[in-house]
Fold:
Amino acid sequence: MVIDVAPDAYRLQVHPTFSSQVGPVRASALAGNGSYTPKGDVTESQYHFLFPATTINIAPGIPNLSIERWIPDGTKRTIEVTDYFFGPGVSAEEIEELVAWDTHVAEEDVALVEAVQRGLDSGMVPQGRLMTASEQLIADFQRRVRDALVG
Structure:
């Protein structure tokens, strides 16, 4: 695992116009003990969500930035469009390695989200509860949706 997601290391932040997740790189990742070694000046991950459907991300390693737009396509489908930007002097090999890692992480996230959706669709749990500390960004998103609908 590249990013330290332990509760005392991974920061979740709610701001008036956006929310953020910021996490440092694990020391073991810097030692090259995984599929991606974040070599470079960027020492932490940053994921910033701009309501209603945009994220600005910085992955650890080489100088980079990605912007994702999330486009609803029906009640149970969303299309993601991602643009990547890299600093000067970043090689094609470094870009390929970072994008492959980012894609792998995204695929893991999609699998988790789809599993949650299957659980909700089963009807076995009529209403879930959020864990206030670890799921504060979900609660913030729900508040923003409610506020947008209510006006």
Summary: Residues 38 and 100 are 12 Å apart (CA to CA). The first helix runs from residue 27 to 30. The chain is about 30% helix and 25% strand.
